[in-house]
């Protein structure tokens, strides 16, 4: 039974939400930075005080020890990606102890270092939330009252000290509560923003993987095009980035490249797997796939901006493409990028109707289509991309000759375009 409970506990630990882990880690790093800021402030305050009225060396010793603890915790954060609750509780307790010791050693209720208690409350808000920060403020109030009462109790002047310093004491107790409330609100805002950003990234990654799975399902109908969409997305995305498109625009180009042939799901298998030159009727079928793909993707929330890229990736710069015959700048830039990358990847890959043309031949064909089939600006950027090999694709290294496309008995021999 004990072994079963251990296995169940380990399973629950492994199933922790990765987004939540990232949020916790980010909060811990933020609190670590805040602690270092307060530490530096305390050191400066301690050593610039002209008439301290307390042992400066003793305070420096406490601050030095605290600095070692802060440095150690930062190292642990970078070595261990999931610090856990024990880490948070331990470091909070250490901060409370340091603030109490320094307050006691530097004047009690009137100590300028009582502001260190604000650090403890703020960090608690970031780590544990609103309710815990209020409880922490109450505990800090008790520690502050205790640290200031030790010396007066030893000297028998506690009531006199309490009466003389009552204004300062009440002010700081009130500030503890205010810091707890404000810190809780700020912590909630930070956590909400971090959660939104993290979950958006996770959802974007999931959407990309789902889209890739859909593209792979389409490509499974033809073994010669397997992996085409993934390689195309890499090429088109790199080209988009090199052209200066924003992060979101480049991401849209990658998605469009992944899903550019999804409309082939509506094309009969006998046409997709045709090893001979297509007839006019079959080509008419094939020319429908960009519109079919756009119709499939368009209604999907979060992908509607990708639909135009899919619809127009077979348009030509001179207006002779399909399905709409758009010309020049009328064609979405993402579609123009995908068109160049798609043609290049298709030429360097083996297809059912011909072997790879080879790298050199493919580049020559791209240059030949500059200004007619393809946007000249996209072609120039793409050629520079391939020349510098920034995408590290498994491109062919030798120029292979193109074989003729098999024909039907009643048609003349043709070469693949």
Describe this structure in words.
By secondary structure, the chain is an all-alpha fold. It contains 17 helices and no strands. The protein is elongated and about 105 Å long. The longest helix is centred in the middle third of the chain and has 54 residues. The N terminus and C terminus are likely disordered. Helices cover 68% and strands 0% of the residues.
Quickly describe the structure:
This protein is an all-alpha fold and 417 residues long.
Report the helical percentage. 55-70%
Helix/strand/pairing class, anyone? mainly alpha
Looking at the structure, what is the overall shape? elongated
The number of strands is: 0
Radius of gyration: 34 Å
Order of helices and strands: HHHHHHHHHHHHHHHHH
The N- and C-terminal alpha carbons lie at a distance of 69 Å
Low-confidence stretches: 1-5, 7-23, 397-417
Count of helices? 17
Range of strand content: under 5%
Mean pLDDT: 78
Biggest sheet, open or closed, and with what strands and sense? none
